[in-house]
Amino acid sequence: MTPLGNGAADLLTAERFLRFGGLEAGPEYDTLTLWVVSAEIAEDEEGDGSGNPLFDRIIGTPKMIETGPGSLRYCIIFRDCLSYAWRDESYALEEDAFEESEDREDAGAPPLLRRHDRSDFLEQVTRRTGAADVLDVPVMHFAVSTLDAVIDVACLGLPEVTAEMLGPDDPGPKPGRRVRRD
Known about the structure:
Blueprint: H1 8-14, E1 17-25, E2 32-41, H2 53-59, E3 65-66, E4 72-78, E5 81-88, E6 113-116, H3 120-129, H4 131-134, E7 140-145, E8 149-155, E9 160-165
């Protein structure tokens, strides 16, 4: 795993929870735009529980993970995208298992936006597209882990990450809004 960072990307990699906001091809050909929103554990008082007293006694009272005013909406743009895959979070396997465990510097959970230097996804895309034979730059594998899904992206460059804070009247994710390339 290679650390990412730089402005909004630093904020994104420090997030604890993300909710999927939207995904679309574009704004240019071979570009993928992904929206995610930061989420936090609800700060409310004790809730009603799960409805199962035994579960609540063993696990504890469940808490909601919510987005709202003050949450950050991230727009992640992957240019020169070769392929992407959506995996439901309940079926996603940790790609870090592919990498050497002693190479991991962090003792906690991996960041929610990360680059994999080696992975099954990267090997499959490289093999099926023949990219290694025709490209003079390496193909990179990025994974974005949300509460809803894991999105894997194979592309030729680092993603561009921007962030905006949600206001009290924010209607939600902004798929379909064209992003200017500066």
